[in-house]
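A common beginner's mistake is to predict each chain separately and then try to dock the pieces by hand. The better habit, illustrated here, is to supply every component at once so that their relative placement is modeled jointly.
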Amino acid sequence: MNVSVELSARKDVPRWLAVGTPVFTVLGALALSAVALVALSVDPIAAYNTMFVETLTDPFGLRQTATRTVPLVLTGLAVYLPLRAGLWNVGAEGQLYMGAIAGTWIGLNVSLPMVALIPLAVLGAAVAGGLWAGIPGYLKAKWDVNEIITTLLLTFVATQIASYLVRGPMQGGSGNFPGSDLLPDAAQFPAIPLLDVHAGFLVGLLAVAATAVLLARTRAGFEVTFVGSNPLAGVQAGMSTFRVYLFVFLVGGAFAGIAGFNEISGVQERLIPEFSPGYGFTAIPIALLGRNGAVRVLLAAAFFALLFVGGSKLEVAYGVPAALVDVIQALVILFLITAEFVKRYRVDVELGREPAAGPAGEA
Amino acid sequence: MSTGITRRRAIKALGLAGATGLAGCSGSGDAATDEGEDGGSDGSDTVKAAFVYNSEVGDQGWSWAHEQGRQAVAEEYDWLETGHTEAVEPSEAKSVFEQYVQDDYDVVFGNTFGYMDTMVSVAEDSPDTLFEHCSGYETRENMGRYFGRMYQARYLAGIAAGMLTEADTLGYVAALPIAEVVRGINAFTLGARSVNEDVTTKVRWTNTWYDPPKEKEAATALVDEGVDVMAQHQDSAAAVQAAAEADIWATGYDAPMAEQGGDSYVTSPIWHWEEFYGPTLEAIHDGSWEADFYWEGLGDGIVGLSDWGPEVPEDVKSSVDDARSAIESGDTDVWADSKFADADDETLFQDMSSYVEGVEGSVPE
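With all components supplied together, the output reads:
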């Protein structure tokens, strides 16, 4: 027997497939997770109702989802933008920490009224995150050093720096507990009236809009997409891959840096070690799902936020183990990413006899 | 297509309305019985209590011990409804606390120091919910705090360690350099030195409450430095396991760790949180709860020692028993012969930031 699997890129994706895949794959992942829920004698329908429907129908759940979306969309953009240029920024987590450090430091040490202090801290966070991503960006652009490795490893450096600072020079509070002092009120994002979500949410939306405009309407954005789809042709057309590569990392890193400060200022109120539950890593599937546009990155980020918030609600409501919620989230992500692949490629599996054994001329 | 959605929506809306109606009925029914029974207590008779843990309850450690307490009270009181969430990082705590407030819980217990700021701010925003924070130093009108004098049990474990050691060197795998942990190290060392003046304690900091590989690594490093009795202040049994593998004595923490300690297991200073959760929930139930600071010890039963390991000699057991009675009766004060002899409770609880004589090195800044 001979099994041949052939992959061919689809020229155009049928509409039913484009719309149907995410829906069916999410349902598939949930059906698989239901086995575990049933094993714990939890009614899966009621559990999923709590996780998704209830979260999205009460103001509290929506507010939490919106708050969670902020760091996810910003780090999502930090991966998305280099991805448009054909590069992998897997170190958004580290850039987020550098931004959090810089923003918190400014918030604690500069005294200005809120209208000036918050923008300054956001700017500082953007610069820190941008520079941190700029290192791998420069190494890639100048010497073609593999950016996957450099961005990833710099993440560990960044989290350790944050860990050191909150136990050393930036340690505040009392009780010798690792963590900085509380940010003054002037450095904390106020809540948006009516929505009751911190104003960092607006910064996230602005970043999405800016990225969309950048890619669709500007020369720099055009070059990013062009170099991303064919770097050689880009060079032929007189574009500089050096400038494009450095640019996407600087801007992407800046977004991740802002995400870090937003999370500290809007949610945590002080810099603590390991404050991020891996936003910068979750950003990678978000960018993959949203690879066709900045607004889709936003949608993907909101969906992941819903998964987190709903998962936490599920734990609270049914007392299911934390690990099971992780499994459900991971399955949904895994199914979605796999579906992306199936959507983009046509998989043909052929079962047949050994070609040599078959009569010649038959195909 | 659109009609389908509308119909579905309509059905759901009807269903919701029905459910709300029912809930409304049963709610008013409950309220009526309440008034009948206790004549005017406010709200419903059921107390809903939430427990938020920083680590997984299967960890055989800190959260496991709290979960034992929750299960005990949940079993005991038929008017009590409990919920719990495990593995909640301090950075995630806010949304979990808020969720419980949203779900109309009467009281939220949080079991780690790192929740303190968050709990204070959620308590400020939720004046109708009660909060109880374990191991911190902040209270509010609707937020109490609780802990136990674990140092007394540590002292007893130290006596056993001091009698068992031949190298006169004890090892201590410690989480974070905060007062709670330093207090345990000091009490353990004082206990050991009360029976063996030559003892020194070597401390390794992991800077984490729960990270079994890291805890094990620290324990192994201590074994390499020649300690022959291991103690630990972590949320898992990894250090005890490392000690068992190296065939040296070990005392655990939080939970009976006999299984991990094998033949060379000594004992573990352990918690009996139900001794706090029970009376506290009763007070909430009968309306007499007030925010205060609960800090009791061996006498109250909130702390104790687990069963002895299989090979602990009888003289060790009887010495520890004697010391235990002396502490319970007030004849022995753990700190009497140390530099903390004159310290008041507040200093002991919050400001203990240096070692007693006999501990090597100094507390990291």
